Amino acid sequence: MKSVNEIRSSFVDYFRGKGHEGVASGPLVPRNDPTLMFTNAGMVQFKNVFTGVEKRPYSTATTSQKCVRAGGKHNDLDNVGFTARHLTFFEMLGNFSFGDYFKDEAIAYAWELVTKDFELPKDKLLVTIYSEDDEAHAIWKKVAGFSDDRIIRIPTSDNFWSMGDTGPCGPCSEIFIDRGEHIWGGPPGSPEEDGDRFLEFWNLVFMQYEQQADGSRLELPRPSIDTGMGLERMAAVLQGVESIFETDMFRHLIDATASVVGKAPTDETVASYRVIADHLRSMSFLIAEGVLPSNEGRGYVLRRIMRRAMRHATLLGTNEAAIYKLVPALVREMAQAYPELSQGEKLITETIHLEEERFLKTLSRGLQILDEQAGSLGEGDTLDGETAFKLYDTFGFPLDLTQDALRNRGIGVDVSGFQNAMARQKAEARANWSGSGEAATDAIWFGIADRVGATEFLGYETEDAEGEV
Ligand code: ATP
Ligand code: MG
Ligand code: MG
Ligand code: MG
């Protein structure tokens, strides 16, 4: 059985064998794109190549890209631990054509790789296409011999990708596997599609238009290909397990957690182990790139991920710093593919340890305040936004931590009250801001916060805008 590390190599080797340039993962903090919080897809490092602004010495490429979806447009944070397929940090395997091959080859490669090299059962596979994409329909029929009911036409933007309001865009086609009736869920387009029976593992994007500002679309003279396969999802499929968290890599991380907390997971506690294993990966990779926990922007999303993992560690009964002890296990699993982990091991360990000490110091005081304020509340009540904000501001309780702590008592939190308090504080901070001396940078950051709203900027948006690779 192939390990996660072997599956990564198989994918990249397959496309290198087809003449693709093997390119290293781009950074998680995208360069030259302050509007994007974290790299969330393989195409991010190639944006300027697709638009033609930048030239490379190759016209096809393959990568395994580090991705984080924990804030902004793609936010899977709240899914983690509760679905079988979502992580905040994952690796997206991709093949790219920059005006080289197009739909025919992209579909033929995908089919060959999954049915020959990965030996997936053909009769369990099905695909979605954009409803108007008759070309993709015909190619899938020819290449895979699918009957019409296994090529599902989706009319929504889920199957139409665009880079932004203008620029390259086009239909996409997603590949799913039916993992059997014993797993709840329905095929894409059905009311039960959010279940895990039909697992989406690969998205092929056919960039064939250029969106104009006036709403019209021009045909690109040399259309391009951008694909993304979730490595961990593929591993779950190939290893015959239901969830990403049962693959070899996650089993090792969960075992390490069990030995640090001194307890094996049970049905009641397994979600905490999963959250910790996932969040350990996101926080370590972000710190390795120099992101540090703070109360602003990217640093705040990182802090939120870290504190969430730490809160789950306390739920498992630890009352001293524990997460930092898991770093060696992660280095063992992933440093061969990502040497920045071993290079940054000391920084990662110390940053996590320090944040844990800080967190534990304020946790008990914060929980006490929460108890006092929420003590008289009962099922169906709401904690006021000012208190939630005070917990955030003074005790470093991210909003979702407060929500988490109250959830099992059936108490909600006034989110818009929280956001108002936050916005008021931001306005005051800005009025007092003397600037970093870099006017352009300040303008960019404040500009983003204004445009997307302070709360989304901080990663509070929970809606998952999909369909983007
Ligand atoms: P889903 O509908 O399951 O949330 P998606 O449509 O948002 O997935 P894409 O944007 O199409 O995902 O990304 C391409 C591939 O990356 C997906 O087919 C999947 O294999 C993988 N992927 C996406 N999000 C995650 C995640 N949060 N965790 C692990 N893998 C993911
Ligand atoms: Mg998604
Ligand atoms: Mg998709
Ligand atoms: Mg999807």
TrEMBL record:
Sorted UniProt keywords: Aminoacyl-tRNA synthetase, ATP-binding, Coiled coil, Cytoplasm, Ligase, Metal-binding, Nucleotide-binding, Protein biosynthesis, RNA-binding, tRNA-binding, Zinc
Top class in the EC scheme: ligase
Cellular component aspect of the GO annotation: cytosol
UniProt domain Alanyl-transfer RNA synthetases family profile: residue ranges: 2-469
Chemical reaction(s) catalysed: tRNA(Ala) + L-alanine + ATP = L-alanyl-tRNA(Ala) + AMP + diphosphate
Keyword Aminoacyl-tRNA synthetase: yes
Location of the protein in the cell: Cytoplasm
Biological-process GO terms, alphabetical: alanyl-tRNA aminoacylation; negative regulation of DNA-templated transcription
Keyword Plastid: no
Manner of cofactor binding, per the entry note: Binds 1 zinc ion per subunit.
Annotated EC: 6.1.1.7
Cofactors: Zn(2+)
Gene Ontology MF annotations: alanine-tRNA ligase activity; aminoacyl-tRNA deacylase activity; ATP binding; tRNA binding; zinc ion binding
Entry similarity comment: Belongs to the class-II aminoacyl-tRNA synthetase family.
Free-text comment on this protein's domains from its UniProt entry: Consists of three domains; the N-terminal catalytic domain, the editing domain and the C-terminal C-Ala domain. The editing domain removes incorrectly charged amino acids, while the C-Ala domain, along with tRNA(Ala), serves as a bridge to cooperatively bring together the editing and aminoacylation centers thus stimulating deacylation of misacylated tRNAs.
Function: Catalyzes the attachment of alanine to tRNA(Ala) in a two-step reaction: alanine is first activated by ATP to form Ala-AMP and then transferred to the acceptor end of tRNA(Ala). Also edits incorrectly charged Ser-tRNA(Ala) and Gly-tRNA(Ala) via its editing domain.
Protein's recorded name: Alanine--tRNA ligase
Biological source species: Devosia pacifica
